[in-house]
Amino acid sequence: MKKQILERILIKILYFFFFLFVIFPFLWGFRTSLAERFETALIPTRFTLMHYKILFARPEFLIYLKNSAVISLLTIFATLIIALLSGYALARLKFSGQKLSGLLLILPLLPPVAILVPLVSYFQKLGLYNSIGAIVVANVVFNLPLSVWMMRNFIRGCPVALEEAALIDGCSRISALFRIIVPAVGPGIVAVAVFVFINTWNNFLYAFALTSSQSLRVLPQGILSFLGNWGTYWGGLTAAGILVMIPPVIFFLIFQKWFIAGIFGQQLK
Amino acid sequence: MKIHKIILLLPILILLNCSQDDSSTIKFTHIYDPLAGPQGKMNVDWIDQRVQIFRQKFPGFSVELEQAKWDQIDTKSMSDFRAGIRHDVLLTSPQILPKHALVGDLLDLSPFLSWTPKKIVEFSWSPVWQACVYNGEILGVPMGAHTRLCIYNKEMFRQAGLDPEKPPQNLEELISAAQKLTRDINGDGKTDIWGLGIYFGPSRATIELAFAPILWHFGGKLWDEKTKRAVFSSAAGIKTINFLRDLIYKYRVTPPWVLSGAYDDIVLRGFLNEKFAIAWGWGSYWIQPLEQKGWLKNCFPPHPDAEMTRAGIFLTPTNPKAQFTNAWTISVHSLSKKPEISVELLKEFVEPQALKNFPDAGLPGTLSNWQEPDFQSDFYRIWFQAIKFGRSMPRTAHYEELASAIAAALQEILVKNADPEKTLKKFQRAYNIRYAGE
Question: Domain tally for chain B?
Answer without folding.
Answer: 2
